[in-house]
Queue: 2 jobs
Job 1
Amino acid sequence: MSWIGFIQGNQSSFKEIYDTHIDDLYAYGRQYHYDKDTVLDCIHDLFVHLFNNSRIAREVNVRYYLFSALRRKLLKIKVQTVDIDEITDDIMWTNSHELDLINDEVEAKVVKVIKEKVDALPKRQREVLFLRYYLNFSYDEIASMMGVNVETCRTLSFRAIKQLKVELKPLELFTVFYIFFNKF
């Protein structure tokens, strides 16, 4: 990726950076605001503001920079939290159509329970889990992004996982780690 090309107005660099990050930025933005269009508008405003802006730092972690900027932008518009969009992927291998249907039904029920338990976590705990396990940010980056210290991030993550362990049955806990943390 050419960050310097991006901030100098190179259209192919713009396309590359946009295409690389748009899906994750959108998923992250939906954690802050219920309205899909508002999230997309904020992302597009962010890219328009950064594109061809020579005052932007040249040596940055692009991913971190974009997520931090989007977070600040969304927090400025009095955000509302929402559920994580559908968390569905095949989690079991099957050999027949009937087993596929049964597995799909079981998976849907388990995913629903997991979503409910994850959504019941406090907002900051959900945010740390999302940034850490879905977007693979380090605790240092998360702490900087959220304006807290690293130990607070680790504590939020620990408490969230501990709460999920208490509330989910062993099979559901395995599934949450498989679907939510490993697949995202």
Job 2
Amino acid sequence: MLSQKAKYALRALLALAEADQDHPLLIAEIAEAQRIPKKFLEQILLDLKFHGLVASRRGKHGGYILVKPADLISLADVIRMIDGPIAPLPCLSRTSYQRCADCDGEAQCRLRRAFAKAHDANLRVLETTSLASLLDDDAAQREAV
């Protein structure tokens, strides 16, 4: 399940992706617009800054901006940064693989085979959906109405 922290991180990144990169957004602006507790957002933005997705600017026209292009930031990237591995079983993880302690063999494991199908489908969506594509989807929906 997606944590609240990851959900807030994605919403904050979408706000930054949508914003004019020449005009950084203040934490208070993001928090209010996205309905994210300000203190929690501060921690999230520090994490995202550590991972190189956002940068902060000081001063009168300071705030946060997106550093990496929105089309290069996938949902999977953000979820892994905030929540860790996406896989439902450690033996399916691409970034934190671990053999299951009670496993007699991955090739024979019925649970692994079943969960692998669901996990692969989930990953296809999360890894191919970028922040930019979500914004494009929003724009297309508004035009259709």
